[in-house]
# Entry
Amino acid sequence: MKIIEIKNIVKKIDQEEILKGINLSIEKGEFVSIVGASGSGKSSLLYIIGLLDKPTEGEVYIDNKKVDFDSDVSLIRNKKIGFVFQFHYLLPEFTLLENVMLPLIKAKVDRKEAEQIAYQLLNMLGLGGKEKRKPYQVSGGEMQRAAIARALANNQDIILADEPTGNLDSKNTYKVMEIFQELNSRGKTIVMVTHEMDLAQMTKRIITMKDGTIIDDKRIDI
# Structure
């Protein structure tokens, strides 16, 4: 079943075509990496898939529903899509627990229930016992794991990751990739932008971009 589909996506910035008529579908439960040189359009594509940016032309479908970029993007993002970026974007004045609770509170989940969910997620990601620490009191790898917990807070089906290991050492990089593989085995659909081919090889499908187009799309056995 298609969970993401984009049709004839064009993105122009100051008359320059960043994306040139992209067509792509992603099935529920896939783990997809998007690779390509800097400037190939991979992050631009991810942001349109994640409804963070509006295409100049073309259509985006999430769960077979056409997205109206003028009305329902916030609702779909909150319910369906979690984001993990290269920088964790945790709020420094809040604890890890409070950071993970934020999307739940925003979704009007009862505070006690939100706290329970946040505790469970942090524990699942190996951060049990560190819930009350603030971001500057834990390592870079632990901050990124907390960011993944936050992305999972509303039990979104889709996780989008833009260079999620870009600021991590090799040990924490592979820890994050193992977490993504585990989440994917539980049914989460993951789309990850990376420039590291060894990480892309840990996913199930590699999409290669160049100059705003898809030049290769292959499934791999891992």
